[in-house]
Design brief:
Elements (H helix, E strand, L loop, with lengths): L2 H19 L16 H5 L7 H19 L4 H22 L16 H24 L5 H26 L7
Length: 172
């Protein structure tokens, strides 16, 4: 197998362990729930086919759901984010430039584009996650607040993770 596959497997294992052993137990102020494992899906190679990407997203969400004891929330949000990524990631990351990005990261894309990509994807993920959890429009303000705060914290953690754990030459 090539090195890109091994890096993705390593990233998957590291982010899943971090999520399951540490971040699943972090609730800041009742509104902030960091979910860094979503970064694995956001950093999958752009050359990956649609069906494999959706299957990986479904499997990742299902694994987190099973390990966390909540069935369906993560699976729905992960699969939806993967579908949106398939449809819009190139437009968000390149802003119309004629460049091919193998692995989306802070090192391979202009930082402001990459942060906007993270904010959008995490925002969609958290909105779906919290709306599925609430399953009502009664507490919609709380959902929006939790979505905003969790998106900001997860984006900051994602940028920190990439600065610390990825090298510039690894992502190209």
């Amino acid at each position: 197998m090539n090195s890109l596959v091994w890096r993705n497997i390593g990233r998957f294992v590291l982010l899943m362990l971090l999520q399951l052993l540490v971040l699943n137990y972090v609730y800041l102020g009742g509104y902030i729930i960091p979910m860094l494992y979503v970064l694995f899906l956001l950093m999958l190679p752009t050359s990956m086919g649609r069906i494999p990407m959706l299957l990986v997203a479904f499997g990742t969400g299902l694994l987190i759901d099973i390990m966390s004891g909540v069935l369906g929330f993560h699976t729905l949000a992960c699969t939806t984010v993967a579908m949106i990524r398939i449809l819009f990631a190139d437009r968000i990351l390149t802003r119309g430039e004629n460049t091919v990005i193998e692995v989306p990261s802070i090192h391979s894309v202009s930082p402001q584009y990459y942060v906007s990509y993270l904010l959008l994807m995490y925002g969609i993920f958290y909105f779906l996650f919290f709306m599925t959890e609430l399953f009502s429009f009664k507490g919609f303000g709380g959902v929006l607040l939790a979505t905003l705060l969790s998106t900001l914290v997860s984006t900051l953690l994602s940028v920190f993770y990439q600065i610390v754990f990825t090298k510039k030459e690894e992502t190209v």
